[in-house]
Amino acid sequence: MSPQREHLRGGPSGPGALPALEAVPGLATALASTGVAVLVAPPGTGKTTGIPPALASRKPRPEGRTTVVVPRRIAARAAAGRMASLAGEDVGQRYGYTVRDDSRTGPLTEVELVTPGLLLRRLQADPGLEGVATVVLDEFHERSVDQDLLLALLLDSRSALRDDLELLVMSATLDVGPVSALLGEAAGAGSAAPVIEVESPLHPVETHWRPGSVHAPIASRVSEVVVEALGSCDGDILAFLPGRGEIAATVRELAPRLGKSVELLELHGSTPPRQQDAVLSPGPGTPRRVVLATAIAETSITVPRVSVVVDSGLRRYQAFHAGSGLPSLRTSAVSLATADQRRGRAGRTAAGDCFRLWSRRDEELMRSHDPPEIAGAELSSLLLATTTWGAGDPAELSWLDPPPPEAVEHATALLFELGALDDRGRPTSRGREMARFGFHPRMAAVALAATGRGSGDPAATDPTGADPDAVELAARTLAVLDDPPGGTTDLAEAVLARSGARSGAQRGRSTSRWRRRMRHLVGPSSDREPPSGRAGTGEEDLLGRIVLAGFADRLARRRPRRSGTYLLRHGGEVSLPRHARTGALADSEWLVVIDLDSRRDDPRGGIIHMALGLDSATVGELLADAGSTGQVDTEVEHGWSPTDGTVSTVTVRRLGALTVSEERRRSAPPEAVA
Fold it and tell me: Cα–Cα distance between 669 and 503 in angstroms, integer?
């Protein structure tokens, strides 16, 4: 199924120029006739800030808002601000945004910028998306799990409920064939969705290869090349690094080497709004700048005045981490498509330069595109979303790349363990509650345990009656799980460090975000000052109960006569690191293992990175619950002693690979042996 393609050549990009607007007439025609379309245009041509307002103001236009989905919160805020600025308005009038914990929209809003996760939650609550006329999926080449899931659910909604819902997919480097075919097939168009490609000539960019030493820290290598570029090139410099940690390290290395005539700035997902504005809207008289940025500056956001790019060649992506059972961020080399996008940022307004921290030979071996996140991600959030949507099997939906069966199987087992699915794979009331939270299911289970919701206890159905201490502990625990600290193996110690003044600035902001989220779940009755000081025994017991709600499958028991070594419930053997073999954790017979570094020879075991010690009462509650649901196996063994003629009986209770109790009796009746 070959797509109908329209090639347009826009004018050169430059300050204030929006070459992508050349595509508006063709897009309006395609959406009016088929309801679906694909737009491909280079970065910086006005896709995000120009196309949605133009579609929202076309005559005639469908009744309802245009919802634009961008990958990151910072991009949503920045794009809404840019649209409003071009229109001479304040954000929240015709152009607004909604992200987690922040919204600026109003009754006049025509275009709303949101993130994939936020629209997923809206779609779950309102599958027909009442009041929305057009959904624009921007920067779709990133292919996050949430983006792929959102497209699948939107296509299903369009098929069953909203055949008038317009869908536009936009990207700079997308392989358009598969997505065009999927859109056309799902829309019943009889052919692939129309594809409109806008070409906007970039100014020439000279590429310089600087491979350097592979043993040198990336912060040092980037700093060296930035200093070189400052001396040999003109204009502002945009340096791409994989994450916030590398940016901070580069700031420490680079700041002492820059004079007062150069301003050093950061741009990443946690950059405060005022600092974002300084990067994106430099005032008159602003000195030359070096902007250290993550992938957010590749396409979602355009940093002005840039004529030099320094590319570390690294990216950070989300993948399943078997050690924690949670999604984790990993670092890898970028693809050619990503490298070319970054390079293009140097040639938007004038000729520029791009410094690549790899060799030409390395470039010949680079993959053409980054693989979709769904190929290697942990999919319990996706599976919970599809089952609560009504799809018993994800295969019932239309996917660009279907979820791998083994990942679906793993996710099913975890959701059953968490009580989110029943034994037929259907969502429970607890699972539906977890899906509404928008957290990873393990983290949602921790939050539920603190609020009492989803417990099945009629007395706990009112979240405003939640224990404030439990809510506070859950907020700090979720902050630790979301942003694990270094330097400690004891979860209780890490959670304590998140209280009050003991938090650092960055971790303090993270903890505050989770407090706001928990308070949103339980209402104002939990609004209280967080406790400070050493956690008491009662607080540690409470921490154990709420953590077990999300990690009961990670229960471990100490091996007899083997200090620091534990057997996991699923059979793997794990060990405390040497520095943690004395103290509270080493004294605990029972642990819940939050994170571990798996061994290559036995991926079920490894070295514990973070764990929580449990008391016998907390474990007893878990075992009682497991026994009531048939998870504890009981084996009875009989033996006869020829010496004295007695019969012995051994009753063993096991939870997975763990022996939880062993009872021996002698002189059983002879018929027990028969």
Answer: 63
DSSP secondary structure string for all residues of 334-398:
PPHHHHHHHHHGGGSSS-EEEEESS-HHHHHTS-SSPPPGGGTS--HHHHHHHHHHT-SSGGGS-
Q: Give the 3-state secondary structure of 299-321.
A: CCCCCCCEEEEEECCEEEEEEEE
pLDDT at 66 over 80: yes
Q: What is the pLDDT of residues 163-210, one digit of tens each?
A: 999 999 999 888 899 999 999 998 776 789 999 999 877 789 999 999
d(CA 509, CA 496): 15
> Same CATH topology for 5-199 and 205-374?
yes
Q: Among 3.30.365.10, 3.40.50.300, 3.20.20.240, 3.40.50.1100, name the CATH number for the domain at 205-374.
A: 3.40.50.300
**Is the confidence at residue 501, as pLDDT, over 50?**
no
As a whole number of angstroms, the distance between CA 392 and CA 395 comes to: 9
Q: How confident is the model at residue 428 (pLDDT cuts 50, 70, 90)?
A: very high
Give the predicted TM-score (pTM) of the model: 0.86
* Token reading at 107: 């009754």
**What pLDDT was estimated at residue 533?**
40
Give dist(CA 276, CA 286) in Å, integer.
Answer: 15
d(CA 245, CA 306): 23
Question: What's the CATH number of domain 5-199, 3.40.50.300, 3.30.230.70, 3.90.220.20, 3.30.70.20?
Answer: 3.40.50.300
What pLDDT digit, counting tens, does each position of 28-41 carry?
Answer: 999 999 999 999 99
**Number of Cβ within a 10 Å radius of residue 176:** 21
Q: Please tell me the predicted confidence (pLDDT) of residue 537.
A: 53
Q: Name the residue ranges covered by the structural domains of the chain.
A: 5-199, 205-374, 379-438, 455-626, 632-672
> What's the mean per-residue pLDDT of the chain?
86
CA within 13 Å, CB half, 29: 9
Looking at beta carbons, which pairs linking 381-384 to residues 24 or more positions away fall under 8 Å? Answer: 381/145, 381/440, 381/441, 382/145, 382/149, 382/411, 383/408, 383/411, 383/412, 383/415, 384/411, 384/415, 384/420, 384/421, 384/427, 384/431, 384/434, 384/435, 384/441
